[in-house]
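To assess whether the prediction recovers the assembly geometry, we first specified each molecular entity separately, as shown.
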Amino acid sequence: MSAVLSDRSDRAAGRRAGSARRPLLGRFAHGYVAPAALLVAGLLYAPFLWTAYLSLTRYDGLESPEWVGLRNFARLLGDPALLTSVRNTLIWVAGTMLLPVGVGLLVAVLSYDIRGGAWFRLPFMLPYALSGAGLAVVWSPILSHDGIANRLLGVDTAFLQVAPHNTLAMLLVWTWQQVGVNTLLFVVGLQSIPKEPVEAARIDGASGWRLFRHVIWPLMAPLTAVVVGLALVASLKTFDIVWVMTQGGPGRNSETLAVTMYRDTFVASEYGYGSAVAVLLTVVTGLASYLYLRRQVR
Amino acid sequence: MIRRAVLVLLGLVWLGPTYLLVVNAARPAADYDPARAWAPSGEFALFRNFARALEGARLADSLASTALYGVVSPLLAVVIGALAGYAIVVLRLRHGFRWFLLIFGGTVVPSQMLLVPLFVGYSDAGLYDSRFGMVLVYTGISVPLAAFVLRNFYTGVAFSIFEAARMDGASTFRIFWRIYLPLSLSALAAVFILEFTFVWNDLIFGLALTRTETVRPVMTALAGLMTDVYAGTPVPVGLAAGLVVSLPTVVLFLATQRLFARGLSLGSV
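The predicted structure of the complete assembly is given in tokenized form:
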């Protein structure tokens, strides 16, 4: 991360060309960053700050926001719907590490160096191109109460009605979709690790699990960090699949934080309280990313 | 050998739902029976089913709007992002790195923090439920990644190219437009593909910022159709709609997997 974000190269370029011409170019240059800076400031930062402010108010979208201090956050602590939502979000995070990332790694390791590997991976790649809504279209007829799964197996399982089974069922659907992209990222990483250490270990007699565990796995660590980081952030913000498959129900028992935020805001029209949920989600995501990155850098 | 066997077994499990999707999307709407969903019907009614979905949910208008959002917003975003990267790296903008952090920092903002102000602000400004409003929001969200990738790309380009063009008397904008932009085509394409997919598959901004079928993006419309599945839209019609509206991203993704993966790992740093 530090290498990519360092401004060393900018400064080096500046030194090389001498500073005499910098003022002239620098002045014009503001016109070139202006569109990007204005769009980001107007559509991302300003709404961000506004939501942070609204989380401290009572607001229904019609009357002006009324300042209530931290009362929304105090209310969050005692809200049973929020507790369920936090629990479900944690299931999503843990489950995402275990299944989509784990199975993705398995498929990548099994297929990256065999002939025709791309063909073996194709079944996993197809679902990735589906959207959350597309995913729900495919799976609702399978998992619904009188759906394909129940009728084919001759059982009567409430896949999407009882908590936490409904979250676990959706997690399996999510796995079906997400394995492809994780496989792809892992394959790109596995194919770009240096050949020499692997060959050297082979000559020394390492193979199979030992070769993977002690040579290949450490070499692909930077990429694993990226895949896990992506999955971590994405799973904390799980929304689409839940919204389309269960709308967070029945009785709010499959809500995630992102769904709770949407429901409180746009269904219950409590903009201030919904904003407080959004702030909580942001803090949790930010904290998780920070702790994760710190561990990776160290 | 064991590796291949495990892969084939897992692959078959993964193909199951895909198979169900294709077979039942092509089944005549009246013939659907969950207990016999595995068996192909022998008839090919995919287009008839899709036509029915187009009519019932006015998906044609949604598709046209989504195509507009999916092409225009990422195009604008990559050019705007490239301009910013060019100013920071090549024109050596004063405090360039801080500008870069300002723009790139936008990727950290979760969409949930945007919804209420955008909804209220758009309503006040007359942008709610308008195509222009949707293009604007998708462009804004797409800019940080574009700026990030293009800035990194231009850092790797020899500065002597700029100096030589300067000697020949080209203006800074001409140098950008005729040299740096074409030079970065591969990076632009990677970002474009990623952002096209993001816009095409978006659900939440469509939910929060649109109402009418003509403006509503297609995935939001599809999600609406899903609630109708319980209310009487036959399963094959829903599946046909889902299959057809997913084709653009399926084709794009399969055709450009490697580029896609590179863009993804670039954007995550």
